[in-house]
Amino acid sequence: xxxxxxxxxxxxxxxxxxxxxxxxxxxxxxxxxxxxxxxxxxxxxxxxxxxxxxxxxxxxxxxxxxxxxxxxxxxxxxxxxxxxxxxxxxxxxxxxxxxxxxxx
Length: 104
Prior knowledge:
The protein has 3 helices and 6 strands; from the N terminus they run βαβαββββα. It is an alpha/beta fold. The two termini are 19 Å apart.
């Protein structure tokens, strides 16, 4: 889970919720400045990030561009297929994680 440092509390609360509700999931958090290094180090399957997905898929299964503005849509990329959601709940994010686990 990667967000600007200004949204550290938001990032940490989401990460804690995922850790509690999906204890089998390995959850790491990072700041945007170290995004590429953390992806290379951790090799995640699901990335929740405030930045758009780069053109190079880098090997992850799902990229969620989670908007910190509740009026802007969140973009979800699953294997290069995109969908949008407005202000997704934690439960919806958990559904994305669960679906990814089933696909893998």
